[in-house]
Design goal:
Blueprint: H1 4-7, E1 16-19, E2 23-27, E3 37-41, H2 53-74, E4 78-82, E5 92-98, H3 121-140
Antiparallel strand pairs: 1-2, 2-3, 3-5, 4-5
Helix pairs in contact: 2-3
Length: 142
């Protein structure tokens, strides 16, 4: 069985936010939780212990950079981090900003019943542009 992340069939390429050193950040298809982002490792690995110490450290730095961006852009009161891999055995983090008007602030997003919220292309591109603008500013700061 081919890994969906390695074959390029997931996540959707037109949802790409930024290409970082070890990872690529994508806006999740379902934006019921605004800003839900997926950070996907560029190379195939299924467990954190498959990474070198340096890769794990870099992964945490990249995840932190994305989470900080989500906090600023979406005015998050908390950020959730999910690394599961049961359905897609490839290291990828779900980074989910939780907002003040969150419909279920004490529940994991997986347990919240909702209709998926897919953004129109223009709205998605606008959301991605805000994130990229912040990420570029953060990455160029001294």
């Amino acid at each position: 069985m081919t890994c969906k992340a390695c074959s390029g069939s997931w996540p959707l390429k037109d949802h790409k936010i930024v290409d970082l050193n070890l990872t690529v950040a994508y806006l999740h298809e379902d934006q019921f939780f605004p800003g839900w982002t997926v950070l996907v490792l560029k190379r195939h690995a299924t467990e954190l212990f498959h990474l070198t110490r340096e890769e794990r450290s870099q992964l945490v730095e990249e995840m932190t950079e994305v989470a900080q961006t989500l906090t600023v852009v979406f005015d998050a009161v908390k950020v959730n981090y999910e690394l599961l891999g049961n359905q897609l055995p490839h290291i990828h983090w779900h980074i989910i900003p939780r907002l003040a008007d969150d419909p279920a602030p004490l529940q994991p997003v997986w347990t919240v019943q909702h209709q998926p919220s897919r953004l129109a292309k223009e709205k998605r591109e606008e959301r991605v542009a805000l994130m990229v603008k912040h990420l570029n500013g953060e990455r160029s700061a001294p």
